[in-house]
Structure formats: C-alpha cells, structure tokens
Predict the structure.
Amino acid sequence: MVNLQKGQNVSLEKVEAGLEKLQIGLGWDTNKYDGGGEFDLDAICFLVGEDGKVAEGNDKNFVFFNNLTDPSGAVVHMGDNLTGEGEGDDEVINIDLSKISDKVEKVVFAVTIFKAKEREQNFGQIMNAFIRVVSPDNGEELIRYDLSEDYSVETNVKVAELYKRNGEWKFKAIGGGTTQSFNDLASEFGAR
C-alpha cells in the first residue's frame, strides 16, 4: 500500500499493473467538540476536461448525491451517507477507467459539509478524514491519503484527483480546503 502526503502523487500502473476498476472510499469522524449537531458530509467528484471545467460543459459530469452516475457510466457514486456513522468508508465512488471519455483529463474528488453555514459547521470539527483507493477485485487497499491537516473554517476540501499524464492514470493527494458553498464549488468547475 502507498501512503501519500499532501501534494504527492503515484502512478496507478506502479501500484497495480493493469488496474482499471477501483473504489474510492472516503471517510471521516466528527470530533468531540463538534457541538453535538448532525453532520452530513458529501463526497462529490467532477470529471474535468482540459479547460478545468466539467467535460464537454455537461453538468452530468458532476457526480454527487443527486447525480449518481456520469454519462459514460465510468463513475458511480454509491449513495449519500447522511450521518457518517460507523467505521470504514462513509461514502464510496466506483471508477472504471476503461469507460472514462477521452474528453476527461482528470477526476477531482471533494468533500463538502451539507448546510455548513446554516448549521455553523466546518472542517475544524472533523477528524480522521481520509480517501483511499481500493481494488474491488480483492478489497485490498492500494493507496491512502489521511488528511492530517488542521482545518478551521473550511466548509469543503478538494481531497484528491485522478489525472491522465502521457496516457497513464495517476492519483494525487490535494487536501485544499475553502469556505466556498456547495454551489460555488460546482460553479468553479462549470457545473450548475
């Protein structure tokens, strides 16, 4: 297994030769100072073209709880976990690299806090956040990135991305947080 730090990347081919199908697991816990309110974090992803916007200007290339699959069927969100309760992955996104359109340069994964402003919640109240790449064939964890950064006011975090370089898929740990709303983040990538 490869453990990444913020800013590091790794070739999927070097992790497991011929890997085409992968599960992206995202998980988190609320800390003991969270104020006791319900937290609903949402894993989302953008299939992005070379212009940095959703591929082909198609909002369906923004995959989240209200759009569980992209047009090609390459990216499938397995559903919204409204509480984050329990161990392991809180939300899972399945990827089939062989189905991703040639118009897609990268797939960006982010986590947002639902109704963060209304509930006065932020990533300073979240701990043990991670993203991991798992082989669906055998359940083996191949890549892991633990977000150990101390966040405070951020309401969303761009966690990681899959990107294609010279025909080879790579996975990069990002960990960049902002205070953008869900809609602002979608707009940044050209989705409405």
User: Anything to note?
Assistant: Residues 182-188 form the longest helix (7 residues).
